[in-house]
Automatic annotation (TrEMBL):
NCBIfam families for the chain: PRK06489.1 (NF005071)
Protein name: Alpha/beta fold hydrolase
Domain AB hydrolase-1, first and last residues per copy: 64-323
Residues spanning the signal sequence: 1-23
A single GO molecular function term of this UniProt record: hydrolase activity
Top-level taxon of origin: Bacteria
Organism of this sequence: Kosakonia oryzae
Amino acid sequence: MFFRIISGTTLAILLALSPLSHAANSAPTVQEGDWVANEFTFNSGEKLNDLRIHYYTLGDRSKPAVLLLHGTNQPIKALLAPGFAGELFTPGAALDSSKYFIIIPESIGSGKSSKPSDGLRMNFPHYDYDDMVTAQYRLIKEGLGISHLRLVMGYSMGGMQTWLWGEKYPTMMDALVPMASQPNELSGRNWMMRRMLIESIKADPAWAQGNYQQQPPALKTANIMFSIATTGGTLNYQHKAPTRALADKLVDERLAAPVTADANDFIYIWGSSANYNALPALNRITAPMLIINSADDERNPVETGILSGELHKIKQAELFLIPASVETSGHGTMMSAKFYRDKLRAFLAATPQRQDKK
């Protein structure tokens, strides 16, 4: 088997994980590590030696395992913040880390996992969501030695990968929870904005075909434009910025923030969604599925009716749609787990757990 495990390090979650009274020394810690495949073959036919998948875990690995998948370009700390982890990982919560072994891998192209900015730049193999899921599966099976998952759950890109998990490995999990996602191919405004994000960076002379010395200026402006256009929620933005002055303040704050991303990494990871399409194989999904979306999701507009027209193809699936309000934030609503924590807990309680969890 072509793999090795690099010992993880431990870091304490600095933020209090619960809005309730919770002693600081009882907050769960995060184990951090790497799994490395000596050779990995991508769907493009390209190969990479020593593909590295960085991952984080919470809890005891003897407990039922939960795979949690992040969004595009989303830092893992967003999943450890009070609005998410504080609502889901604490004692008695849906994903209580004393009862589950929570695994959060960084996808190919993200964080400390292998990515173009490691050195290959635009010569890095072209990857897609299917490659990401394959690498996650190998991490779980080969790296961590886990044969079954209690739950696969993901947000945005991770939500789309959750659909693929249910199709590629239908008996691997007890339950599936894709969030802020749909199974259909990228289309409409969602894909058009992604294309413009990529093209804006490539059109910047400073990009220099990926051989830049400094991050091209278009990276910041294109990313801010994309974020405002596709995440935040119409009602929420109007509530935060009811005047031009307040709207300018929000923009100025984003423009003043430092650039922490890499242009080539951006091009690769946003482009990796180009061939995503889980629709043709929906009937392969056998695990019970709870689909969590928000009514104001800019990237997955509910008014298209795409999702509601496809649910009948899945053996057991329920859509939980969060109503739009000044408290929701469009595509980013799922980072406020208060909107669905009780529904998730009830769903898991009603979903049978296989005994051979490892």
